[in-house]
Give the backbone structure.
Amino acid sequence: MHALWIVLIGVGIVIGGVLVLRLHAFLALTLAAVVVAALTPLAAIEGHLLAQRSIAAVFDPQRDVFLLAEDIEPGSRLLIVRPVDGSWQTVAWIEVSSQTDRRDDVIRHPARAVDDGYVWQEDDRVIEPAAWRAVQSQSRRTVGERVAIAFGQTTGNIGILIALAAIIGKCLLDSGSADRIVRSALRVTGYRGAPAAFLSSGFVLGIPVFFDTVFYLMMPLGKALHVRTGRDYLLYVLTIIAGATMAHSLVPPTPGPLLVAEQLGVDLGLMIVAGSVVGLFSAAAGYLFAWWVNRRIGLPLRESPDFSRDDMQRMADRDERELPPLTVAVLPILIPLVLIAGYTLLRRPLSGAPEFWQVGAATLGDKNIALAIAAAIALVTLAWQKRTSRQQLADAVQAALSSGAVIILITSAGGALGAVLQQTGVADLIRQLPTDSSLLLIVLAFLITAAIRTAQGSATVAMITAVGVLSGIVEAGMLDCHPVFLALAIGCGSKPVAWMNDSGFWVMCKMSGMTESEGLRFISPLMTLMGLAGLAATILGMLLIPL
């Protein structure tokens, strides 16, 4: 079956499973991965593995083959394989010459075919015998093995990070640290600057805490503030959404951008910095939209079953002595950002430092270690602030891990789907796109992600599905810019269009008291505008700051 049809079937199963059959995202993604793996022909799997293990080579009629690699042993014998009758087969041996040729700072190793009559063809690949045996072994794994291995690899990359992020988020909420951050921002800005405080607080909290949790936390504060001021309720709601939702799609360790960065080979520190810059630009666009629509249309404050007016008043009147100091409250958020991003920026300057300093910086800047330190601080803060017993602390961790486990399963299933999609030969499809412009490829990534998001609702599922298809752009060497810009385009594409098939849409409507029609009038255009603004910022960065 052609790779295009396999890819469409896989994406269709995800969208149809979530939207039509109402399957859990984990089940839809896993089912799609199994079906795609079963439909992928052997030749495509071998071709994908060969692309990772083969040696770059060019053909010269005078000298047979030039090998473009530096670590080739003179006199060694290598294999030439090509697709024949539905699989890759050995067609010749070549022997590497002891001479080398350097052109344009590239070392070229001449090699001659041992077999008489060999004629180089465009599909031919050069590979070491041991690597070829590994390709043959891996390509003949069962469907279940291929899906399980890809699932495990994804879990190994992101599982610890998501679990630690869940613990940090739970502790921020239970200790009152999140409430302290919001109140401190309001104290700086005043009531007139409350929308900016909600925007910035939502963005900061949206980095370690999942979007739904941030919204649950901040919406009562918005309602309580409206009770005090009697105005601008719609503005408060939209600025809370604008801040938290962009961090959710652009800044690790939230699952979507975390997996996208891993799949595209983007350094996590760079993704944090770039995602924060683009996210703040998008959030600012959302902030302006919120001001504009609030001046023209009002939204009444309606009581909701989970939060009455008495609850709002109690939230507004909560004694600040029950909350931890701001310097303590922000530590679980700032420490991982400083350690990870700082190591990314200082890695090159530290290259000449003593080995002890290099090893120490690399250890502290490791994403897992940085978040582990932050989680430890968050747990200590919770125990100190609430005088929490060991059992209560264990219960809090258990609740956090129960929530995080679901996210790990969904994200890992998405990683498995992405891996088997790549094995279909989707990289070759992308290579054949009628453009060699990185700008158009960035726009294409945005549109593909937006289409998946609009169809099935989940921003995270849209990102992890799209990156499985779009990672072929990097694999095919078609991108002339840094892959972080592709990652940012995917993150921005996960914003349009929020509507009734998105669980987050219902959370925002029900918690704020909006009707469905009001949600479509206010939330849907807000998210679309922020996605487009993020795309514009990404393109601008690609043109002005080539990394």
